[in-house]
Task: inverse folding
């Protein structure tokens, strides 16, 4: 039984009103204290729970794991045991922190070892990411980009409504929250001029979510839409940084390259698909009808509210976008089924980005490119300045959460400052 389905579940650790981390969440991440060793962690309210310490003190006796799985720099070791084992682990944690459970609560020595104030830990990239694939699954985003760069009458390319378009990205430059990036250099070309080399003048964010996979089925095997969720561990917020001027010049004919692979920022907590189950909703109507291997049963999209904030240097943060993961035209099960339909194998720790998540209204567009409509409608900030793209020293912050039946489950945030090009 998944704890997230129980709205009355209360923790004996205080959970402040509106916290992203009630007992129904139990996300997974990697933490350390000072410069000490990293450990597998979860979070409840303003406390981080050290799972390695829980293991050492005998609280996971009935589970298949060993100490090294938690005394680890990544979540890959616990993910190797697969969906059922991580579900059992999450349920064990929920039970341990239930209001009336005295097992750990009554042991002050163990509590001291196991619980850390959230502001005392550093959070790290949670997973050693193998392959990174980025999809392009928001119809509104693809339509907006098609209108701006091609023909409004034929904004979507002919394949878009038939398959989840994607490309293979690069995992080496995926970084955790709070790590600043520098404005990238590259080749750009203005209309009627020769190409030139220099710092990008059009650095943009892409509001995305990304999911991590468990081990797949091996080379040559397909994962069906019905099997897909057994291979999905959980989701994080994902800022797929993009340099629009570099992108525009380089992308023909093989797609994005250096415009995309200089950095992508990911939030530290992985919220499991199990935790998101109460927030499952129908996928938008798909017309024309999809081919058989992309058909699916039930609710496979998720109602996750997404917000983007821009914080100028020494200024206050300003909300510039409100979107929702449920707007995605293609759901994760279809993305995974399509990815493996040719026998391409996915592995434990692979990452799949959703593509920029834009909604139907101009305030729900998931990139500066769309919000400022290719620079023609600059975003006005309260400090009197305006933005067409991200400026040096701006910090971009994504937040995401789901609310249903009085329960809120949040993702925390991913925050990245853009620094000037390196000199
Ligand atoms: Mn992207």
Result:
């Amino acid at each position: 039984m998944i704890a997230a389905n129980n709205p009355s579940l209360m923790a004996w650790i205080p959970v402040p009103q509106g916290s992203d981390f009630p007992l129904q969440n139990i996300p997974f991440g990697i933490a350390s204290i000072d410069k000490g060793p990293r450990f597998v962690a979860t979070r409840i309210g303003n406390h981080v729970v050290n799972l390695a310490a829980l293991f050492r003190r005998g609280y996971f006796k009935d589970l298949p794991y060993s100490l090294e799985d938690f005394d680890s720099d990544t979540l890959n070791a616990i993910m190797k045991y697969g969906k059922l084992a991580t579900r059992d682990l999450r349920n064990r944690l929920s039970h341990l922190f239930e209001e009336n459970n005295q097992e750990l609560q009554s042991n002050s020595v163990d509590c001291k070892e196991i619980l850390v104030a959230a502001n005392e830990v550093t959070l790290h990239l949670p997973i050693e990411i193998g392959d990174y694939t980025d999809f392009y699954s928001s119809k509104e985003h693809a339509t907006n980009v098609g209108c701006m760069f091609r023909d409004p009458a034929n904004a979507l390319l002919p394949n878009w409504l038939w398959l989840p378009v994607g490309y293979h990205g690069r995992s080496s430059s995926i970084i955790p929250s709070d790590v600043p990036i520098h404005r990238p250099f590259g080749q750009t070309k203005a209309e009627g001029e020769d190409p030139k080399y220099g710092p990008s003048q059009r650095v943009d964010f892409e509001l995305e979510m990304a999911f991590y996979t468990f081990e797949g089925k091996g080379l040559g095997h397909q994962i069906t839409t019905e099997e897909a969720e057994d291979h999905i561990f959980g989701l994080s917020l994902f800022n797929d940084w993009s340099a629009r001027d570099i992108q525009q010049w380089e992308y023909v004919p093989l797609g994005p390259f250096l415009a995309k692979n200089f950095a992508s920022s990911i939030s530290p907590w992985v919220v499991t698909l199990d935790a998101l189950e109460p927030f499952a909703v129908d996928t938008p109507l798909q017309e024309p009808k999809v081919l058989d291997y992309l058909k699916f049963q039930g609710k496979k999209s998720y109602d996750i509210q997404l917000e983007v904030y821009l914080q100028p240097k020494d200024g206050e943060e300003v909300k510039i976008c409100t979107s929702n993961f449920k707007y995605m035209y293609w759901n994760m099960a279809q993305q995974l089924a399509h990815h493996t339909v040719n026998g391409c194998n996915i592995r434990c720790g692979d990452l799949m980005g959703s593509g920029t998540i834009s909604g139907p209204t101009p305030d729900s567009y998931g990139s500066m490119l769309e919000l400022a409509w290719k620079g023609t409608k600059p975003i006005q900030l309260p400090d009197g300045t305006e933005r067409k793209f991200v400026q040096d020293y701006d910090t971009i912050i994504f937040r995401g959460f789901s609310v249903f039946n009085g329960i809120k489950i949040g993702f925390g945030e991913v925050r990245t400052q853009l620094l000037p090009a390196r000199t």
User: Anything to note?
Assistant: The two ends are 55 Å apart (CA to CA). The longest helix spans residues 83-96.
